[in-house]
Design a protein that fits this description.
With 416 residues, this protein is α/β, with parallel strands linked by helices. Helices cover 33% and strands 29% of the residues. The strands form three sheets. The protein has a ten-stranded mixed sheet. Strands 3-2-4-5-1-8-9-10-11 form a nine-stranded mixed sheet, sandwiched between helices. Helix 2 packs across helix 3, helix 8 crosses helix 9 (270-281) and helix 10 packs parallel to helix 12.
Length: 416
């Protein structure tokens, strides 16, 4: 496994530039680096010592190392230089927060360039690590600090489902190849990097241990919102990830004491699905039934399709998870008939106290028609291997979905 962001931030004899707008998380990232070493000197121009020590305690309540805060009021670069050199000679992580403030009084471009070059050269000959925080773009006059840094990390926001998600990007890592350059994180009560879906772990799912659902997605609450919940899925989410999300969700309902009907799409392998349910549920897999509607045999007649589903529903599971890809051909052949089918199935679900969770991509005709009758709406959005979840009706906070099939875990982490 290659270097991660923490490895970059704690590299010996490195000068690391961390840039980003105020409030995006630069201080937390620097303190995370401090928490990984026995000794750290934090040079601050604005944030009080107590605020910094409180944040460090949030990151690592058991941190036993030496953490010194040096408050700089005058902004005298010569004094800062001596503090930095002293820390680096001791092999510490030294944080300057921020270089904008440190160099505020240096107006002459040649003096600025000389000072930074001197700082960089001196740091390279020491055992410590120098982290420079920059407010906004790390450019002062004609000097671009990215070119006098061994590593460059830029913090920014990505918009996901109307919410801002903090993002760290490794732009430069002088001595090493960059194997992973993007990290999403949250700074609620410390700093927490969100976990990606792991394609490797999906190959060998193990017995389901837990799913920490958002409260708004608990079964009893979902019934209060109605019996027809629709998920619109971003096209960027690969079908494999989507399948495992729903296999885990269905298995979680089983562990909570419910029987589940699973209605896969036409491209899903039914034997592989049942194998996954066996791996996740053990002997409880018998509480999952996999259904298919024989649309062709029924002549794509919506009334016959309704009668077929009704006959199954009368004695079938109370929770049903439905891939709308299975309905797409009917929706395209007979949009009006499909809408009548959806309308009548909504009434059937209410009558039988039956929860139907349907999902599909925005391009699906079946989804656009089903959306008219959904009593609750959710959305799944992807950013690379990261998946995010949000309730749109009623509105909820944004959550990151963290699935580790190898450990049998699916967690929802609120993004703040």
């Amino acid at each position: 496994m290659g270097r991660d962001l923490v490895d970059v931030l704690t590299t010996k004899s490195y000068v690391i530039l961390v840039s980003g707008d105020p409030g995006v998380g630069k201080t937390y990232l620097a303190l995370l680096a401090c928490s990984k070493k026995e000794s750290c000197t934090y040079i601050t121009y604005s944030e009080p010592e107590k605020s910094l020590t409180d944040k460090l305690a949030q990151i690592d309540p058991n941190y036993k190392g030496s953490f010194g805060v040096v408050s700089m009021i005058t902004g005298d670069p010569s004094h800062v230089y001596s503090v930095i050199m002293n820390g680096l000679m001791k092999g510490e992580i030294v944080v300057v927060d921020s270089i904008n403030s440190m160099l505020y009084g240096v107006n002459e471009p040649s003096s600025l360039r000389t000072f930074i070059q001197l700082l960089y050269t001196a740091a390279k000959n020491k055992d410590g690590t120098l982290i420079l925080l920059a407010e906004g773009p790390a450019i002062m006059g004609s000097l671009d600090f990215r070119y006098v840094s061994d590593a460059v990390v830029n913090l920014s926001y990505d918009e996901v489902l109307g919410n801002k998600v903090r993002k760290a990007e490794v732009i430069k890592d002088r001595s090493f190849p960059i194997e992973k350059n993007t990290y999403y994180f949250t700074i609620s009560n410390g700093i927490r990097f969100l976990k990606e879906f792991s394609p490797e772990s999906l190959l060998k799912p193990s017995l389901l241990q837990k799913i920490s659902r958002p409260k708004i997605a608990e079964f009893e609450l979902e019934k209060l919102f109605g019996y027809n919940i629709l998920y619109e899925v971003d096209e960027s989410i690969p079908p494999t990830y989507l399948r495992y999300f729903w296999v885990f969700a269905a298995s979680d309902f089983v562990l909570r004491g419910y029987k589940v009907g699973y209605w896969p799409g036409p491209s899903e392998d039914k034997d592989a699905l049942m194998s996954d349910f066996k791996n996740l549920l053990g002997s409880l897999y018998e509480n999952v039934s996999i259904y298919e509607v024989p649309y062709e045999a029924l002549g794509f007649d919506w009334k016959k399709v309704y009668n077929y589903i009704e006959s199954l529903a009368m004695k079938g599971p109370k929770i049903n998870i439905i891939n709308l890809a299975s309905n797409e051909e009917l929706a395209l052949k007979d949009p009006n008939g499909y809408e009548f089918l959806v309308e009548n199935l909504v009434k059937l679900n209410i009558r039988l106290n039956r929860l139907a969770i349907t999902y599909g991509y925005p391009s699906f005709k079946a989804l656009r028609i089903s959306a008219k009758y959904a009593t609750a709406k959710r959305s799944l959005s992807g950013k690379g291997n990261y998946i995010f979840w949000k309730s749109l009706k009623p509105v909820s906070e944004l959550y990151a979905v963290e699935l580790d099939a190898e450990k049998g875990e699916l967690n929802f982490v609120e993004v703040k």
